[in-house]
Every structure is written in C-alpha cells, then in structure tokens.
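Entry 12.
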Amino acid sequence: MKIIIVGAGEIGRHLAESLSNRAHSISVIERDEALVDDLNERLDAQVIQGDAASVTTLARADVADCDLFLGLTSDDSTNLVSASIAKALGAKKTVARVRPETQAEQWLFNHQAHFDIDHLFSSERLTAVDLAKYVRNPERIAVEELGHGKIELQQVFISPHCQAVEEPIREIKLPERVRIAFIQRHGQSIVPTADEILQVGDMVTLIGEPSKLAETITFLESDPAASTEYNVVILGGGEYAFALAQMLEGSSSRVRIFERDKERCEWLTEQLQRTIVLNVDATSRKELIEEQVGEADFFIAVTGEDEDNVMMCLQAKTLGVKYPIALVQRADYADVITDHKEQLGITAAVSPRQTTSRELLRFVTSERYQQAFTLAGETEVLAFSLSAKSPLVGPTVREMSVVAGTGFVAVIRGNTAFVPIGEDTFNAGDTLYIIVTPGSKAQAVKIYGQG
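Predicted 3D structure (tokens):
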C-alpha cells in the first residue's frame, strides 16, 4: 500500500517505523526540520518537510495515488484540513486524529461528514478505553472493545451456581443486544445457536454494551461476593485522565483525580459529574498516605512522565493498592513492564503508541477483511467493510443464511455501534464484525467478502 503519514511525533514516528518494515510505500510529512533530518536517517521512507494542509506539499507526496492517508499531528486543524484535501485530491481512505473534546462533540457537529473523512479517532480516548478495560474486568480472562468502547467483548466461566446451567440460550433472559457469541468447552470451539445449552465450566464470550455486560456476568457467575464497585484513583489530570474519568462515570465506581494544577482542577470539576477532583501533588509517598490511596482498588498513573507513572505505581502497590496501572508512552518500556509485571507488582502498562497503532493497522490491508482479534482455539473475529454489492446489504439478519460456525457480533455505523438482532439490516459502508471458527473461515471470507 501507498501510505502517507502527517506528523512525526510520538504516534506518527512509531507507526512509520512499524510500517516501513512491512513492504509498504511510506511517505511522512513533517514541518520540523530537525525531525525530518532524524527520520531521513532512521526510516526507509520518503520524508517531506512542509505544511500538510498545503496542496503543493500533498502533491509532492503523490497524494492522488495514496491508498491510506493518516493525519496524526497533535493539532486538530492540520489533521482535519489535510485529510479533507487529500480525500478531494484522490486519496482512497483518510483518517484523522482529533482531541477527545472534538470527538465528544460529534453529536453536535459531524466533523467526519463535514470534512469528508473516513475515520476520526482520539488517541487519548483509545488509550482510556484500554485503561477502562482493567477497571471493568480486572480478573477475568479477556476484554476487547469495538467502536471506541461502545461495544465490549468479555469472557467468563460458567459457575456451578449459575441459574442458567442446563438451559438453552433462547430461554436465558439476557439484556437487550447482549449475546453469547462464543463458547469454549473442553477444547471445542462453539459459535452457539439459540438451542445451545450452557454447561458448568464453559468459557463463555459475551458481547454487548459495557454497562449491560456487568449485570450479565454477575448473573452467570452467581457470586454474591463479587462486586463491580471499585475505588479508583487517577494520578494526573490531563487528557488521558479526563477521557478515562468520563468512561468510568457510567459505572458504579468511585473515582478521584489527583492534579497539582489548580486551574486544571477547576476545569475538570466543571466537566465531570461524579468524579472527585483534588488539587494535590500526589507524586510523593507522604501525599499518597494522607489521601489514603492504600484503600483504593485501582491506582492509574497517567501523568506526562513515564518514570513518575511507574514509580508512583510501585509506591501505591506497597501501600496496598491491588491494581496499579501505568501509562507509559514508550512502547518498548511498556513491553518490559508487561513482561515483568509479576515481579514489579504492576498490573499493566498501557502505551498510547501501541494502542493507536493497533487501531490504525486495521486499515493497512488489501484483503477483503481485517482481523480484529483472536480468541481461544484459533477462533477469530473478522471485520468486513460492506459495499453496496455485498449480499449482506438489504435482507434482515433473520432472513440471511449464516455460514455454519460463524456469527454476527457487532456493527459499526458511523459514530454508532450495536450488536445486531434478527430484524436489523446492514447498510453499505457498515463495518460488520463476524466471529469465525477455524473450519468456517474460508467459507465465511468467500461468502461475506463478496462485493
């Protein structure tokens, strides 16, 4: 693919380095002369110094022949305008990075439609989704998200105390648009029909809105001691903290933000409804003790300094916090911490660079589908972009002939996401996520990838 990346900051550079080793034709546009010189030494790519919002600069990068255009600077205007111009000049697919506030305003003004851009994302919100996974599901097997966290996939073992044991799925009263999408049973991979009967020990994969999944998991586990009410402390009040607090406000957790800047505290207090914002410098053990951080279930450090985040997580762990989580910008540092999390006592290290790269790499394909993630037994969730010629566009889900061993699990339509049910129909432009077992993949790609 021919890929143009605008911006050689942390995210743009990380992605460019990843893609330059994958036989793609990469061009990077960057204003800063020093960054351009550095990239020319490090990358096997065309590096252009200039303003990406300039038609002349885009023409130098051959934007008309571009398969994928990525606006990844820290400035919304540059990303939106450059991606819009690139689309008008012939770029096949355009993606722009925006601030969390801009993405949150989509219900008031549709920037994506106005600028004719295929996809908008916020790296801060993507990272917050990754962080929120641990809070919503700290001990369970796996959590994945779709549609920027609007839909989640969670896994749980069926308890001997579960009231749904030995009942067919059709008789289980699940919340609206929550589905049992996959069952792993004694090494067997099952995409269940409505007649499938749950058994003790089944590893069940659920998909639905995060708030609805919590009550479903409690029902399936039937553990009265289980609780989803957590005491969460967020260190730092920047964009990552704001996006994370917004997501957690929809849960029953108690959330506190520690931020040293008074003006930022006032802004956060105005924007957040149920989060307690404290104007304290919590980068010392003394402050942590005074604020009784040891009583927290989660301590999530999201300051702008990797070292502070890691060190404060270690401090929090010694005070009694069960789940310390660090935001670590450098992907290699995050990998080291993750590899040694048991020795360090840090639950997870989340890297915005890695999170954003995963989001963007799904656009880097010439296949008729993209792999979203893999489950047990080599079962996969694949994403299909539906065209007007797709046989899936038109009929209701109930009217379709579904390939055995597959199931429709989620639809992304613009800024909305939902789990499809019988009376739903699919539109051209939808992204449809389908779960496929190994034996059904070839047939699924052949049928669902038409058009």
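Annotation: Residues 76-89 form the longest helix (14 residues). The chain has three domains: 2-121, 231-357, 365-448.
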